[in-house]
Recover the amino acids of this structure.
């Protein structure tokens, strides 16, 4: 009968001190202890009574939060005049104060200067109520449109990939106990074995609806197209839309294939666009990316360390791309690295190995250092600092040497500034203050003088920052600037202010690349801005056509989209480990593109995460693997 | 009779007769309401007598009370005059007086002779005549009653012994046979409450606290809210004006116990000479004894949970005409064969589901249906007939829903409502949607391309040619066309909203205590119905128009007609706020759900309460009749949906799944699917057909009323659709069975 033991609720009364404090606040000095007790009991009772009545108003107001107006209404019920002036929407900011052995919570009432109020410009008029219709379900199936919650929440995506036997269908989610139609009704608990003969892992068919196919086409074209405004919108859609889960395999393949092709073509612009897509995908909180890291990470790594990323390495700023990709890499290490996949340590190993190689080109060298440096001060301290002297010597050789190509010089220059940038702050932290150039020269060789000055600059900066802690915290809380392009797109999507009605949709609307609902706050757009591209319009055009044709073919096929070239990577079993031979076409391709460091590439194969090899069963057509492979060969 | 009332009012200043309405009966404070009802529109003709016999008896007793009072104060002349006027013989008075003073329950015996006023006397008389006379008066006015009511607690016992008594009983009940234990455990909660209140009343505050702390944990979890209220109550002064307490005292807690178990309990208490507990059981509990097998724990749990125990079995015995009214024949203009076909099988409006079972359209009356003229209904206008034709046309295009054929759901989100959306309604033809808001405003939107237009002003109307064919078009002012209209008039949050079936009017009920009638032609307020002095939580138009019902914080549901500013009927009996009100499809009955966790069904004709359904564990916020009128679905804050068979007065199903308050329920047009919408942001679809079919195969336990509910919610659940962040406040099936849902988007 005793369903649950409840805690004491009988004796909750306000402390008598509160009564005293309140009495004082209205000018009653000495209040007897008995009066206080009597008062506090009475007041507690009345407060409880009023709160219970206020709850009624909350329920009828269809809210979960009790508001001040509920209390007002409850007071009105009791024929008590409501409390005026407490119209706080969210919460009443009580302040706490103590002193003289007493503790108080009080409501801070600021003095308000009327002239200030008069002079301030009027606030924006709040948006008027409007009505918007969308399909919550179409003949029993919930369409994945921005107005609906993501069809497969991240947890479910994860459960699907890690525990494929427990998969439940989106329509019948939650505790999986809903039986009835469909095969997705296994008993949630282990004892339901008698139901259904053998529980097989459901074949994950990544079928896309017509709308999704259209959306995919639009988005991918916008992402690599020439219109920057469109691209910003498309990227934002990728970063915020909750229903992309079904398309994720396509996006992943699109990116990895795109990188593969464009590295060979040396199309810097497209590589940048693709990296921004990766960033957008990673920003989307509803996606469970772990499943597709095996495609994304190699692509990102390629953009960091590839020997050549653009047609004219002496002019184009491919360094920015390397920096950006390195940051991406660091971010994915942070979010996805676990003890089982060891992404971070494997990535670190790859970078170090190719960096240590004597023959590595300056571009790759730069990428490796950038990739390592982004991983954090610890990595810099243990891996980069010890090699500063060696690297300095190498730079010196280039700078002061006789026969140097311009490209080498630029490369060395960039490496030098990169090292200085990242190492200075770390050194500033680990070395005690007196910075003598001599001492530095012993430790760090050629770079010592510059390093020394950088460190000193870093120290003064740190000191300044320490003085202005408050200001820095303020600046942190400020919203990030957004791209003006994306903002204009947003304002268009916030809809008209007057109440308007969207009629019952007679047919399914296309998924728009705008954020879900107008009143949703817009997330800041990515800040990365593309710098100079050398790719001529003609070449871009050409590549786009390649991409779109490719995408079309992937979309229409119902086969999991891991295309053949990736097959070896996908097939890497956790057990087989990094002892993968380099004979597969994919690896061969990378080796070719970076001829100077054969060994590093072998490592790369081990870098590729092998998280969930079971979930993706590539059944791709092998014949397609030949064409990109062939095209990769051509530059050499 | 009116004369009697008049003189009565002169003789003694009775505050308001409304303070003591008899249970489950109409209060005819509107002396001419009988004629109002019979004079109401339509060809229906007059209705039978509306003064129920109980009312007359009641009045007589009131008179007796007054006489008693006068006599006590030696106002013998007045006594004589009053008696003469009322035509009461001397002997009757004496007899009745004696009867009343020796009435049941020790109420009278314990009253101190001294300073009693007429009201308290009154209350005693009525409360001794009616088993459970609830106090209808708003809390501010009922102070005089309280003293009397509470005085019942003044019996003295050693406070220290209360715990001993209670734990003694507890020990006894824990040791009885399993089959009896569950039944006897029902006694715990009411006993606990009454003992606690007695302790508090007699100023044993600390003992009471200790008692509460020791035993409150033993009570069933669904009484938690009441216990919370109770826990705050620690002083005698607090008891004055506390509604929950008054409810408890004035209404007997109804328990249903088998004869064997009852004998067991009785024997135990008598053996132990445990008079304290026995007294409480005698005075404050109503034990409904039945012969047969004791009920199981789950059976008891299914039915208990209301504020005053289960409904008495007798309460659900009255015959309910749940069948549908025959639709009037409509001569269709036979201009196209499409309509002709429909006319063949034309049995429109809510009659559809029966079509298959009865085959051709039967001229004969459904045996369970009330007679066509049981209550007068408004005559159909031409426009209504046109609408019916439209309805029939649409009905032929209706999708047949079922397990494998789920409806599509279109969700209307109210954007930028800032959590202020409180009520939503659709018109039957789904062309308009209205929203009530916390900022006192009401908005109406058109969801078709047809915009909302006002009628032209009187001066402009004079100018138009009244003979022209398109006069109805011409009276509209094109300049005012817009997609939405804003209606201002209320001075508090709008909690209930309802369109009239002909789409000409809109009702809204508000915190300010009024119900307002708005014209959708001029978009102005036509009437403000005042009567509820407290927030009106819900209102609804009758499916036939003209009538509407409202219910609110004052615990009284009122039946109104649009052309009278005073209510025709007042349905009193609920022990707490009336939270939702619904008309039966045949307009002869009204269902009300309440915070006292019961649902009552009222007969519009005579105002009697014909059904009391208990079983919910929280305030009821949604009610819906099945289209065939046989079943009722109800949803409450506990997130459960319960299904009721109206004819037999039984609970027939429980649908578990929602995790928060169910705010909306709707059957599909054919009654095959039940849709429920909740605060937990989901719309769920249930297989209503299966739920009702399963029942038929069961052996029907109508006689005992003991239900065996099988836990098959999961099988009945057909789908669950989550919105992004919008609680589902309203559901509506279009005439073609598309489900419309609405709610405010709360980011």
């Amino acid at each position: 009968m005793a369903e649950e033991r409840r805690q004491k609720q009988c004796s909750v009364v306000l402390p008598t001190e509160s009564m005293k404090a309140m009495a004082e606040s209205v000018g009653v000095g000495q209040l007897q202890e008995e009066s206080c007790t009597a008062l506090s009991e009475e007041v507690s009772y009345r407060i409880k009574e009023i709160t219970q009545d206020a709850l009624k108003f909350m329920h009828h107001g269809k809210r979960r939060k009790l508001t001040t107006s509920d209390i007002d209404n409850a007071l009105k019920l009791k024929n008590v005049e409501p409390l005026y002036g407490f119209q706080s929407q969210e919460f009443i900011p009580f302040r706490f104060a103590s002193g003289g052995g007493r503790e108080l919570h009080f409501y801070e009432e600021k003095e308000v200067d009327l002239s200030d109020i008069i002079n301030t410009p009027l606030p924006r008029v709040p948006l008027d109520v409007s009505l918007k219709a969308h399909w919550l379900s179409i003949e029993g199936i919930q369409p994945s449109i921005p107005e609906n919650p993501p069809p497969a929440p991240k947890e479910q995506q994860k459960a699907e990939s890690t525990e494929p036997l427990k998969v439940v269908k989106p329509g019948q989610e939650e505790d999986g106990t809903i039986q009835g139609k469909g095969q997705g009704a296994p008993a949630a608990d282990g004892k339901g074995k008698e139901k259904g003969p053998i529980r097989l892992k459901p074949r994950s068919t990544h079928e896309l609806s017509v709308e999704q196919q259209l959306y995919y086409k639009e988005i991918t074209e916008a992402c690599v197209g020439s219109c920057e405004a469109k691209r910003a919108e498309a990227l934002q859609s990728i970063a915020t839309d909750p229903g992309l889960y079904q398309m994720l395999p396509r996006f992943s393949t699109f990116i990895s294939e795109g990188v593969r092709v464009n590295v060979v073509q040396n199309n810097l612009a497209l590589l940048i666009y693709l990296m921004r897509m990766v960033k957008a995908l990673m920003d989307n909180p509803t996606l469970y990316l772990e499943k597709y890291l095996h495609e994304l990470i190699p692509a990102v790594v390629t953009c960091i360390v590839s020997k050549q990323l653009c047609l004219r390495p002496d002019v184009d700023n491919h360094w920015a791309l390397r920096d950006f990709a390195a940051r991406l890499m660091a971010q994915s290490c942070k979010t996805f690295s676990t003890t089982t996949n060891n992404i971070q340590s494997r990535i670190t190993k790859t970078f170090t190995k190719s960096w240590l190689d004597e023959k590595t080109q300056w571009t790759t060298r730069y990428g490796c250092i950038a990739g390592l440096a982004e991983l954090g001060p610890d990595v810099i301290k243990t891996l980069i600092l010890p090699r500063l002297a060696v690297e300095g010597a190498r730079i010196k050789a280039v700078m002061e040497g006789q026969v140097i190509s311009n490209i080498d010089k630029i490369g060395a220059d960039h490496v030098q500034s990169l090292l200085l940038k990242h190492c200075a702050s770390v050194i500033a932290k680990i070395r005690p203050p007196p910075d003598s150039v001599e001492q530095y020269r012993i430790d760090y060789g050629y770079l010592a003088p510059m390093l020394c000055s950088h460190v000193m600059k870093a120290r003064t900066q740190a000191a300044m920052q320490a003085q202005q802690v408050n200001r820095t915290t303020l600046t942190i809380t400020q919203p990030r600037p957004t791209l003006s392009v994306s903002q204009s797109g947003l304002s268009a999507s916030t809809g008209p202010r007057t109440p308007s009605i969207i009629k019952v949709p007679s047919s399914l609307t296309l998924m728009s690349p705008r954020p879900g609902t107008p009143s949703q706050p817009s997330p800041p757009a990515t800040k990365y801005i593309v710098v100079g591209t050398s790719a001529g319009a003609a070449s871009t055009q050409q590549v786009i056509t390649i991409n779109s044709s490719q995408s079309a073919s992937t979309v229409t096929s119902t086969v999991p989209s891991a295309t053949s070239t990736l097959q070896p990577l996908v097939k890497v079993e956790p057990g087989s480990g990094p002892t993968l031979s380099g004979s597969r076409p994919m690896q061969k391709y990378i080796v070719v593109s970076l001829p100077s460091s054969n060994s590093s590439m072998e490592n790369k194969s081990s870098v590729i995460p092998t998280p969930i090899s079971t979930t993706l069963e590539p059944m791709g057509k092998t014949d397609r693997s030949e064409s990109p492979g062939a095209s990769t060969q051509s530059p050499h | 009779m009116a004369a009697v009332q008049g003189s009565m009012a002169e003789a003694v200043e009775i505050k308001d007769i409304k303070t003591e309405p008899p249970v489950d009966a109409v209060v005819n404070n509107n002396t001419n309401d009988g004629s109002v009802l019979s004079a109401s529109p339509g060809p229906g003709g007059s209705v039978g007598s509306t003064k129920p016999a109980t009312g007359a008896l009641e009045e007589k007793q009131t008179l007796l009370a007054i006489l008693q009072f006068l006599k006590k104060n030696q106002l013998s002349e007045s006594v004589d005059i009053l008696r003469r006027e009322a035509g009461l013989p001397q002997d009757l008075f004496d007899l009745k007086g004696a009867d009343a003073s020796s009435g049941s329950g020790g109420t009278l015996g314990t009253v101190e002779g001294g300073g009693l006023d007429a009201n308290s006397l009154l209350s005693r008389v009525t409360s001794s005549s009616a088993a459970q006379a609830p106090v209808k008066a708003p809390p501010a006015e009922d102070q005089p009653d309280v003293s009397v009511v509470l005085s019942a607690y003044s019996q003295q016992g050693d406070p220290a012994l209360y715990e001993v008594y209670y734990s003694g009983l507890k020990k006894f009940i824990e040791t009885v046979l399993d089959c009896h234990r569950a039944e006897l455990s029902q006694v715990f909660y009411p006993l606990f409450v009454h003992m606690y209140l007695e302790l508090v009343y007699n100023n044993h505050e600390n003992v009471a606290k200790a008692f509460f702390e020791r035993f409150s944990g033993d009570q069933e979890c669904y009484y938690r809210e009441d216990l919370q209220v109770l826990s705050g109550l620690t002083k005698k002064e607090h008891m004055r004006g506390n509604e929950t307490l008054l409810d408890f005292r004035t209404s007997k807690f109804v328990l249903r116990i088998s004869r064997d178990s009852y004998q067991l309990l009785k024997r135990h208490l008598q053996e132990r000479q445990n008079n304290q507990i026995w007294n409480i059981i005698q005075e404050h509990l109503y034990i409904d004894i039945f012969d047969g097998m004791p009920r199981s724990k789950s059976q008891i749990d299914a039915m208990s949970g209301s504020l005053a125990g289960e409904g008495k079995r007798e309460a659900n015995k009255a015959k309910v005409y749940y069948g549908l009214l025959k639709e009037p024949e409509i001569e269709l203009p036979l201009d196209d064969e499409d309509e002709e076909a429909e006319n063949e099988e034309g049995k429109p409006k809510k009659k559809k589901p029966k079509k298959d079972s009865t085959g051709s359209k039967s001229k004969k009356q459904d045996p369970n249906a009330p007679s066509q003229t049981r209550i007068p209904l408004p005559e159909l206008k031409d426009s209504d007939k046109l609408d019916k034709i439209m309805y029939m046309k649409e009905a032929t295009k209706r999708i047949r829903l079922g397990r494998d054929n789920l409806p599509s759901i279109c969700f209307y989100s109210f954007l930028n409502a800032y959590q202020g959306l409180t009520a939503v309604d659709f018109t039957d033809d789904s062309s308009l949607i209205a929203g009530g808001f916390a900022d006192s405003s009401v908005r109406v939107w058109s969801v078709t391309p047809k915009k909302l237009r006002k009628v032209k002003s009187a001066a402009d109307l004079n100018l138009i040619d009244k003979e022209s064919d398109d006069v109805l078009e011409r009276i509209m002012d094109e300049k005012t066309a817009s997609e939405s209209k804003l209606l201002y008039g209320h001075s508090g949050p709008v909690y209930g909203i309802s369109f009239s079936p002909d789409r000409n009017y809109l009702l809204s009920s508000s915190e300010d205590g009024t119900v307002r009638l708005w014209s959708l032609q001029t978009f102005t307020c036509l009437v403000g119905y005042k009567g509820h002095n407290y927030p009106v939580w819900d209102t609804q138009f009758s499916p036939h128009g003209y009538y509407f019902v409202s219910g609110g914080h004052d615990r009284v549901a009122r039946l109104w007609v649009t052309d009278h500013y005073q209510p025709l009927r007042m349905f009193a009996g609920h022990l707490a706020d009336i939270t939702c009100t619904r008309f039966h499809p045949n307009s002869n009955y009204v269902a009300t759900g309440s915070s006292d966790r019961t649902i009552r069904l009222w007969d519009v004709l005579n105002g009697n309460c014909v059904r009391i359904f208990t079983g919910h564990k929280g305030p009821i916020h949604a009610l819906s009749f099945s289209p065939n009128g046989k079943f009722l679905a109800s949803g409450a804050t506990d997130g459960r949906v319960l299904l009721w068979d109206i004819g037999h007065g039984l609970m027939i199903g429980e649908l578990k799944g929602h995790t928060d308050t169910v705010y909306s329920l709707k059957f599909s047009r054919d009654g095959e699917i039940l849709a429920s919408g909740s605060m937990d942001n989901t719309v769920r679809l249930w297989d209503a057909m299966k739920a009702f079919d399963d029942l038929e195969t069961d052996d029907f336990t109508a006689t005992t009323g003991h239900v065996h509910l099988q836990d098959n919610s999961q099988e009945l659940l057909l789908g669950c659709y989550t919105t992004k962040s919008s609680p589902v406040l309203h559901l509506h099936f279009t005439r073609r069975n598309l489900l419309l849902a609405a709610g405010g988007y709360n980011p």
Notes: Chain B touches chain A through 92 residues (CB under 8 Å).
